[in-house]
Amino acid sequence: MNDEIKSYNNGQAPSDKAVCDLLADTIDTELNEAESKIWHAHPVWFLDGNPVAGYSKEKNGIRLMFWSGADFDEESLDVKGAKFKDASIFYNEMAAIDLTTLKRWLQKSKTIQWDYKNIVKRKGKLERIR
After folding, report:
1. Rounded to an integer, what distance in angstroms lies between the CA atom of residue 75 and that of residue 108?
2. Less Cβ crowding at N or C end of the chain, within 10 Å?
3. Phi and psi at residue 4, to the nearest 5°
């Protein structure tokens, strides 16, 4: 696990830290070719410079987000907006994480991607790259 991400996780309450550690370990394993770092104050994984998955501590719990998740066709993921293609789920305890489902979502994050890396260059317009 990336040292910055480990530090982020260590700064969470014990139950949230356990969720964060499980998410980070699983994402690191499934997206082993991804670069991970703290981006906009929370852990994010990138494939070829494009953000694909990340999590953050929010009021409702630990929010696991997939930047292109709206196109995953997964009922458990909540689609937030029409302009962007993100989708997420909240966790409050480790027992709520279905590892089989999480791994399926992570595999989809490799094959379904919108180009967030160049969104500024394209003046807010997203284009599908995978």
Report:
1. 14
2. C
3. -65, -40
